[in-house]
Amino acid sequence: MNYSEKEKNTANELSFAEFKEAVLADYKLACESREASLLGRKEVLTGKAKFGIFGDGKEVAQIALAKQFRNGDYRSGYYRDQTIMLAIKELTYQQIFAQLYSHTSIEAEPHSAGRQMNSHFTTRFINEDGTWKDMTKLKITTTDLSPTAAQIPRTVGLALASKLFRNNKELHQYNTLSKNGNEVTFCTIGDGSTSEGIFLEAINAMGVLQVPVVLSVWDDGFAISVPVDIQTTKGSISKALSGFQRDAENKGWEIMTVNGWDYAALCLTYKKAAELAREKHVPVLVHVLELTQPQGHSTSGSHERYKSEERLAWEKEYDCNKQFKEWIIKQAFATEDELKAIEDQAVITVKEGKDAAWKAYFTPIKNEVRDLCKLFDQLAAKSNSKENILTVKKSLLNGIDTNWKDLVIATKKILRLVRNEESDEKKTLSDWLTQENIVNFDRYNSLLYSHDAYSAISVKEVKPLYNEDSPLVDGRIILRDNFDALLAKEPKLVIFGEDAGKIGGVNQGLEGMQKKYGEMRVSDTGIREATILGKGVGMALRGLRPIAEIQYVDYLIYGLMTISDDLASLHYRTKGGQKAPLIIRTRGHRFEGIWHSGSPLGMIINSLRGIYICVPRNMTQAAGMYNTLLSAFDPGIVIEPLLAYRRKETLPANLGEFKVPLGVPEVVVEGTDVTLVTYGSCVSIAIEAAEQLKEYDIHLEIIDVQTLLPFDKNKKIVESIKKTNRLIVMDEDVQGGASGYMLQQIVEEQEAYFHLDSEPKTISAQDHRPAYGSDGNYFSKPNVETVFDKVYNMMRESNPNKFPSIY
Length: 807
Description:
Layout: H1 5-12, H2 16-45, H3 59-66, E1 74-76, H4 82-87, H5 93-100, E2 140-141, H6 151-167, E3 185-190, H7 197-209, E4 213-218, E5 222-223, E6 226-227, H8 228-231, H9 237-240, E7 254-259, H10 263-280, E8 284-289, H11 309-317, H12 320-330, H13 336-382, H14 386-397, H15 404-417, H16 424-444, E9 472-474, H17 475-489, E10 493-497, H18 513-517, E11 522-524, H19 529-541, E12 545-549, H20 560-573, E13 583-588, H21 601-607, E14 612-614, H22 619-630, E15 636-641, E16 648-650, E17 666-669, E18 674-678, H23 682-694, E19 700-704, E20 707-709, H24 717-724, E21 727-730, H25 738-749, E22 761-763, H26 773-780, H27 784-798
Parallel strand pairs: 1-2, 1-3, 3-4, 4-8, 7-8, 10-11, 10-12, 12-13, 13-15, 14-15, 18-19, 18-21, 21-22
Antiparallel strand pairs: 5-6, 9-16, 14-20, 17-19
Helix pairs in contact: 2-5, 2-12, 2-13, 3-10, 5-13, 6-7, 6-19, 13-14, 13-15, 13-16, 14-15, 15-16, 17-22, 19-20, 21-25, 23-27
């Protein structure tokens, strides 16, 4: 596309001279970004970095997009977007290489402190006290992740938040979170990833919700080696989605296509797309065609293996930087020599960034090696293993591109050599190792959960209060009235899910809430669990307080990838730089049938470390857990027991205020003979069994763990075992599921094995899904008789005369 001077002025709102200057600045950036990709690949191939993935071939399109990126806007992208980040000044060349070298310093590598591979970017928007910064003054990247299309579900919530901030007057007071909902979410995805189900699910949701998103599909014709005609219907995602195109009668998506090498057309397209999304809250899909990938997918292989000679020749000709250069010359903005000077300077600029990054990364390691070797020398001088110690030292000094682990390995080898010696030098070296373990824990293992003033585990208990006339009500009433209190006092609270709005939930826990607070606060969704959860993640990142409802815990598996790969790891992989305090509401345990009686807690606790897992036994406890989570900034799941909605409980007087502390078990029945540890619906079964056991002079102590993550942070359970010397762990998961985790926590972490007189036992469900009907439930899940028999037989082992065989 050729520009007249008038078109240049109109498109860019600049004078001709200013536009020329801007074009050349863009070319400079395109050259520098390309050089960073090329040099980054070399660093991997020379062994300085482990793996590299870059954005070469997409520079010009990303520069055009970045022109529309304003303060307060959000990026929800993937690992090809380095040029966007450079263009919006959220990335430097030194940081690109700091990521490649996995530098663990937040100052050097603020995106993930070395925890994520390169090209995974982050804006650190959490203050030191755990609160959000002024988001309207930042250009925000929500932290990237590798799983294909995983950024799409959260995009729904990021964009929907702008709609809520614009249309809900109660939210206008939060002017550091939004400027009247004028923020656009810029989402990017590779064309191959549009074949993922979560992409299509989220596209549908955003079309329904009409949210301000500009979704760019970078299309270079391949998903690694698989061509687009195998990936996508009609060989084109924009054609495949043509039914989503809005028209005069129907809302939907605005779908635009543009070639990725056409600078002028790209600038016009993104200007139009951003204006439409920002002003009208219309979702826009920009399908960027005819892109190339000059270095192939990543450093793990070459694209020459699967591309034809004709394709490779075409890619060379239509390389976006080459086409941009030819366009600049044709427009007489610069001569070839002038552009060559820009290209040459780009090489120098990027190399300077690379060298600075390597120096910042390797100098501390080199200095530590020097100091550590002095300790080795001092120990060797006093040791009978001098020669062997010096051999280990020499190996460390001769290492190429030494890492922190090499220092630890060498130190441990030497301490093994002197295991039978005692000296001050040995103690000094041992102390160094102890301190280094602390430092390395901070580098690589810290901040899975937050530990600031807004940490959920810091919330103090507030007991429910009761009056003389406090009524007995169905459990669902306690939930409903507690949600009512929370919605009244927290304007940022929004609750959504399948059937959660108009009818107030399938179990009526939200009865009347939509009518009272409106559809923006309590809303129905389509049947799309991954998007429900992703929407919650995005809204939580924006500073709202969402409760996303999954109708049954069995259905959590539809969205498990979203909360496992994104939500659970978010605080860790940003080293505390971002938070998403999403509360997930669901229900489970005993009911009827294979898909409505789930209790897959083993799956949940093992895939969702980083999220608090609450397993209340009744609705008062569930309400208290919601109150706790809402007063903190951590993500959590509350699994309400299905059979408790119609069970009578006393209505607390301090609704919305009482809080259940996380990680604090409760002794619900005191006993002296056996400690039974359980949670959720199993508590009532255990209580009934305990009553029957009393008739046989067996006194069962029942402990409700209340939360599985965290688990008994004060080690209360072992104190019970010191009294009873016997342990049974009970739950409704499959054998070895959550029960195996609980045993590990009690027997190993709490060292309960020192106090056991009998073999610890577990009571679990059968390994299959629960059969339908009352009998199916009884024979599939633990029951009162199961508990009675297990406890009785444990007592019989120690006193067979008093407790003879029954059956």
